[in-house]
Task: structure prediction
Amino acid sequence: MTLMTMAQATVTAIAEEMRRDPRVFLTGFGVTHYGGVYDSAKGLWEEFGDQRVIEMPMAETGYFGICAGAAMFGMRPIFDICFAEYIPYITEPLCTDMAAVYYGTAGKARVPIVVCARQGVAGNLSHVRGFNSWLTHVPGLKVVSPATPRDARGLWKSAIRDDNPVVILESLAAWVAPPAEVPEAEELVPIGQADVKRRGRDVTVIAAGETVRLALEAAARLAADGIEVEVIDLRTLAPIDFDTLVTSVRRTGRAVIVHTDWKIGGFGAEIAATLGERAHAALQTWIRRVAPLHVPPPFRRELEEAFLPSVDGVISAVREVLRG
Result:
């Protein structure tokens, strides 16, 4: 094992895949001299040069089209759009066209492209808006959201090797977190497989990305009162590993879903509905969602903290479902 930050795990995965496969290239804002946002591409330009680490102008839609075309002709581009707030610039080609290529051609054409973006809160720079639900609604598009450096490295490698579009939504809170252990040997994390981060018997808490940390911290505090919370890290938002979720909820009988999408129309509603369909006989009470209010993200720090899910909010939701 070795200690890595999220940035180091991400760069390690990209570098290993670029050495393994000459078709892989990276493009984005600041990925050359600057080393990427939050060191997301640190050292890659120095190793691989201008032909494989390409600075992108402020023309997201056009440049994404170039990358999509390259992918359809056999290359494997990584398109670093920096922050999730910029994803709407590429939703038309990504969601309308590229996501449907495999289905529309009966598997004859593929688009092996990775789009990565960061979202959430980190220090004094906030990019709170996330578009998880927009993306998970699109068939043919895979969406992953790693919460730890170990999962980040494994999911990145799987995404780069995938033959169809994958969006990696990275948590800014996780990016500024302390380093964590990552295996020195290569480890691929399968897309579409959730991970039980903590075992428990009383209630299942379902989270992804930055909310995994909140769920684990809430579980640790609740354990002091004898409440055992099972924490499941989705890791993949599309396709969701419902089998793991249903198995857990059938055992605990209770569920709390935590996410940073707006509550109305958030992907947590889809999880709640599916659990209601597949685990209704085991549910002992209603499913609770912890998510932002349906208002634009505020800019003041105190309001921002009230807007986003919190550890106290998760604890409150767990206590509510335990009361029935």
Remarks:
- The mean pLDDT is 93.
- The longest strand covers residues 114-122.
